[in-house]
Write a structure and sequence with these properties.
four-stranded antiparallel beta sheet; 9 helices; transmembrane helix; membrane; 326 residues; 64% helix; elongated; transmembrane; 2 domains; two-stranded antiparallel sheet; 10% strand; alpha+beta; single chain
């Protein structure tokens, strides 16, 4: 059965589209109006004398929706919108915590990206700076051959770090917007369910994008490798006469920033935060409501067939009784 919070269905207003009851419908209740892809739909619950003819109907522009794909889209949106009504103080707390953690991790990742980029620029420049009959770059590579590997690895990692920073910002922005809506509702402000659902969906998408960095090929792994590599590079080039200390400072900075960023991203834990209850309830509602929608297909035919079956049964019983009385 569909329901709207604690509001009796009979008390709900008529929908944007009128319902179309069939024979022997005992009760028709407007459940909700909902907009999907710019189209407004009205959802009704019909109770028929025959339970198997009861169920959900969806209307748009006063026409009954018969397309299963359209009905599924509407029911999915309605189920998700209803499910987020259950989000509350605990979810606000987790959203705020994960947002703050993402912000801290992004700050360190951004600092690492900056250190890497500045080191790459420095290395390129040292290829043209000569001291003691050799370039600073060649002297450094002779003492630390891993510099060539660093060049390649750093150029691959740098754009990924910037992408993480951008996706983290998107999650923080969406999580903050969702927190604001939930807090408004908690404080008694009337929040449009459609707006709440839209922001909920945007936050889930942003969370999914950010979680991609923390799963199978977690970003903390290459950061840890980067930290270890640069620690060794700093140690090996520090004694090079040709600007060894200056070169070591760049690698040491990358080491320090990478180590902190690796720890922050490893502990971020955003992938452990799921809107479990809202998602589970949404899926459960969608499954139940699709069953009710399917049961309401060809309702008039179902009713007439049921009546015909009853008439046949009564005729058979009547004939049998008449035969027994002979």
């Amino acid at each position: 059965m569909l329901f709207v919070g604690a509001t009796p269905m009979a008390a709900l207003a008529q929908g944007a589209s009128d319902s179309q009851p069939v024979l022997l419908d005992q009760d028709t209740n407007h459940i909700a109006d909902i907009t999907v892809d710019g189209q407004q739909y009205s959802v009704y619950q019909h109770e028929n004398v025959f339970p198997w003819a009861s169920g959900i109907d969806i209307y748009t522009n006063s026409e009954r929706v018969t397309s299963e794909s359209t009905a599924e889209s509407v029911i999915t949106a309605l189920a998700q919108r209803r499910a987020v009504q259950g989000l509350g103080a605990e979810d606000i707390s987790q959203l705020r915590t994960t947002s703050q953690n993402a912000s801290a991790a992004a700050t360190n990742v951004s600092s690492t990206a900056t250190a890497i980029n500045e080191t790459l620029v420095y290395i390129e420049r040292m290829k043209t700076v000569s001291e003691n009959g050799t370039t600073v770059y060649n002297a450094s590579v002779e003492a630390a051959p891993q510099i060539s590997e660093f060049n390649e690895t750093a150029r691959e990692l740098y754009p990924e770090l910037r992408s993480f920073d951008n996706d983290s910002a998107a999650y923080r922005s969406n999580a903050t917007a969702l927190i604001n809506l939930l807090e408004q509702r908690e404080n008694g402000t009337n929040v449009d369910p459609q707006q709440l659902y839209t922001q909920y969906a945007a936050t889930l998408d942003a969370k999914s994008d950010l979680s991609d960095y923390l799963e199978y090929s977690s970003i903390d792994e290459p950061l840890s490798v980067m930290a270890g590599t640069n620690e060794a590079l700093a140690r090996n080039v520090s004694s090079v006469p040709e600007r060894g200390n200056e070169t070591a400072q760049h690698f040491r900075r990358v080491h320090n920033e990478s180590a902190v960023a690796a720890n922050q991203t490893a502990a971020l834990g955003i992938d452990n935060f799921e809107f479990d209850e809202a998602q589970d309830r949404s899926e459960s509602l969608e499954e139940d409501w699709m069953e009710e929608w399917n049961s309401r297909q060809n309702p008039a035919s179902t009713v007439y067939q049921s009546i015909a079956a009853i008439v046949v049964i009564l005729a058979v019983v009547g004939g049998y009784v008449a035969w027994r009385r002979r």
